[in-house]
Amino acid sequence: MTIESEELAARLDDPDLLVIDVRTPAEYSGAGGYPCDPRQGHIRGAVNLEAAQLVESSPEEIRALVGRTEGSEIVCYCHSGGRSAMAAAALRNAGYEARNYAGSWHEWSRRATD
Question: Distance of alpha carbon 4 from its chain centroid, rounded?
Answer without folding.
Answer: 13
